[in-house]
Structure formats: structure tokens, C-alpha cells
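Hey everyone, long-time lurker, first post.

I ran two proteins through the pipeline my lab uses and got sequence/structure pairs for each. Pasting them in order. The first:
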Amino acid sequence: MRKWLKIAIPTILLAGGAAICAIRWQAWFGMPAEPQWNGETIDYVFPYPTSEWSDSVAASPQDGLRLLVLGDIHSQLTRADYDTLAAHVPNADAVIQIGDWLERGQDYYYQLLLREWTNSALYGTPVITTPGNHEYSKGFHKTLSPVWDHAFPHPNNGPKEVPGASYYVDLPNVRLIAIDTNPLVRIVDLTRTMTWLRQAMNTAGGRYIVVVMHHPVLSVAKGRANVLVYSAFRRALGEADLVIAGHDHSYMRRTPFVVLNTAGKNKPQQYKYHPEVTDSAPVYGTLEVSKLSSPSSQLRFNVYRLNDHTLIDSIYVKHD
């Protein structure tokens, strides 16, 4: 028996180690070298909505709140693209971006984004964003570059002692909750995040609850499902007014869940969940909420194709 154990245990350990190395080979050694930035170094901080900003929007004469919503971009949009989006969504109060804005979480891609964003028509617009898997480094321990927190400051009201960039922002008549699903690999972190999420939803004070996250609760196609995200968040987020995610590089809607792809590496998928609306073209959205002084408020989410800006879908949520 002991002789058998002396042979079996090392064999199992070696086989397990070999399997792990095979699985993680690309993560450890398959990362492309960081491109070298040869242009001027730009140090720009994206503003985010503060309480003062929210007060000023609520008191402004414009008709309610209007946000531009972008999905996976993967560093593919140029300054001209941002100018075109600004022309089709004029006077946006803020931009929501739901992850994988950068192709990689390296300084080169931050500089590329800043160069294209700076002096575009969207320059200076407050940004609400959450990291995607491409902003994280690969390996056993996924890490988010310190440049992220510098470039995209956000309120420090996320779940305590949980890594990542989860937080919420109160806008006029909307509580927007950003969940960073990338680092949630430990049960304790997932539990703390769920406790925080439920509290953030329960204390919204009658506002519309809009959640943004990179990995979707309902994945668009076969092979894309994230079992952890589905199991943990499906029930709680089913009570939200709107949940916007990315990652799948397709568009789908099964209210309140939406998957949005703006420009990143379009991959037409074989749809799995038979949602109400699907589309494989890159799209963007506008999130509009009627003015607080209205007798009854209404949230409207419109989805447009990026190439010709035609309207392909609309979602309406009404609070009496």
C-alpha cells in the first residue's frame, strides 16, 4: 500500500502541475510585448460625476438626463469616431463604458486612448466605467494597473476589502452601480460584493437602478457563459431596472439584461438564450431619464448601430 502511494501521489502531483502549466502557458508567456509609445506622453484624468455635478444637472433647464453608453472598444475608436458619436448624442451629461475600452492594460493603450479622446467633442465629459478582462493582466493573480485608478477616478464606496473597482454613483433620478467582476474568484469576496450590492439597491431611494458590469449575467452564445456571474448575480440583478454588460461582442436584450458591443473585434455568435432581440453589428446606446419635475418619470434605453446610427432597439421602464 505504501509503495503504491509513493508512486501514485507524485504522479498525481506531476500530472496536475503539468495540466496547470498547460492551461496557464498563454497567460504566463503568451502575452504580446507592450508596444512602445513614441508620441507625447499625455497625463489626463477622466472626470466622473460628483454630487455637485449631479446637483447642477438636476437644476439645469434641459429635459432630464442623457448618457452615452459604449461597450467593448478594444482601442479601435479614433478621435473622429468620438466626434461622430458626440454629434449623434449631443450634450451628453456623461459617458458610460462597460469594460475592454483598452486592448491591454498597458501604458501604451492608455496613452492611445488619451490621445484620441483629448480634444475630441467628448473631451471633458464625465466618464463612468468599469474594467473588463482586457484591462487586467493575466496569470494566477489578475491585477489592474495603477494607471486605471489615476485615469478613471471613482467614488470610494465599493465593498470593503474586496479588490477591484466596484462603486456606485447617484445621478439625477438614477443610481448607477458599477460591478468589477474580474477579481471575484474567492467566496469571501463574492459574498461581500453581494452584500454591498443588495444594500446599494435597497438604499437607492426610489431612483432607477442601472447596473453596469463587463461579464454578462446572461451570455449571448455557446461557450461564453460565466457560471459564477450567472449563479451569483442573476436573482439580485433581476430586480434592477436595467443591467448593461459587454464581453460577448454581440448585442442581445432579455430585459432587464442587455449585452452591448460598440467596436471591439466583432464576432457573430450562435445565439444560445433566444433573447428578445439580437444583433451582431457593433452598437452604442443612449440612456435617457425624464426630468424630475415630470408627473411620472421614465427611463428609456435606445440602441443604435455604429456604422449608420440607425435605431435597432428600445427599452422603456416607468416609475409612477
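...and the second, right after it:
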Amino acid sequence: MRVIRGSKGDSQYSPTAGFRYDGLFRVEDCWHDHGQSGYLVWRYRLAKLSTDELPNNKPQPRQLAGQEVPTRLEQTVQRIVRSTKVANYVKQAHDFTCQVCGTRLTTPTGAYAEAAHIRALGRPHNGPDLAVNVLCLCPNHHTLFDFGMLTIADDLTITDRATGANLGRLREARGHQIDEAHLAYHREHHSQGWKHALGDGASDAED
């Protein structure tokens, strides 16, 4: 039990003014008695916990049947700080419209689109955080592009890797040019990934 004493209590134990937290106590005994007004009251004898008795750990969340309580680990994470200015420039140049499908999403806070780097910024790709390496895409086509399901040729023709279908030409906007070298890197990188995933061209029957 947590005990807080006020200044209006027994002067032997109470603070001279306001309130004071006196720590954790254990209920050692209890009994009923008649108070000054004749009503039956319950009385308790409290003993303050020693330092050795104080709990050291915070209470753990109750584990439900069939569920595991997740553990927490402290980690240090390094991440690349992307240029918000570059991303905003590309999205505004395209009026927040996807360069693949032409979709323009509108939310209560305004139009929404995502800036997709053609050549990834992280290792081992080390792509530049420049507008020539960024596309304006909707969330769906951003995901497909990052996984290599969409490739873009030097003439900006878009191919659906799942079906082989030609999805048309990448939409362009004045003031935003794309570096063909980054498109070529994206195609080559994901081409190698597909070869590894398929066993360098082996069919399922040969595995």
C-alpha cells in the first residue's frame, strides 16, 4: 500500500504543510472498532517495507492464453537521412500524380504521393539523393517498383515483370528529368535478383 500523509493528521506523523509521500507499507493486522461517533470502523496496522522488500522490477503485462509477451531490446540504428527538399520537388513537379498509373490520391491533409528512388540510397547501391534518381509514384506502384516487378526502359516504356505486359510510357513533367543510367542499374539489379530466385533459369521441375 502506498501511503501519503496530509498536514491535517496526527502531528507526530504528518507533515507541517501540504502532503508527503511516505513510501510502501504492508498491512500486518486489521480489526473493527467503534469510532467517536459510535459507528463501526475498521482499523489497520501498517508496517513500512524495508529497502530489501521493495520491488525491483516493473510489473509484467499479463500473458493471455496462446499469446507470447514480446520482449524489448535496445538497439542502435543507422539510417540514411533523405532530402525532403528533393522528394517534395519531384512530387510537386508531377502534382502528386503517379508517373505509372496517373492516380492522384487526395487526403484530408492534401494530395499524397511517394518519392521512389530508382537506384537505392543504401549499400551496396549507393544511389544519389537527387531528383534525376527519383520517381513520383502511388504507394502500390512504389512497392512494385522497389521489388523489381516494374521495370522502365531507356525510352521510358514500363513493363510488368509478372505478366510481361507493356503498361505504356512513364509520365513526364516539365523540370524533372530522369537519368537513364539509374534506370539501367535498376533493371540490371532486379534482373540478377530474378535469376537467383529462379535458379539461373531453372524450372521448378528441375529443382
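Reply from user beta_strand_b:
Welcome! Quick read of the second one: Residues 84-206 form one domain. The CA atoms of residues 102 and 171 lie 8 Å apart.
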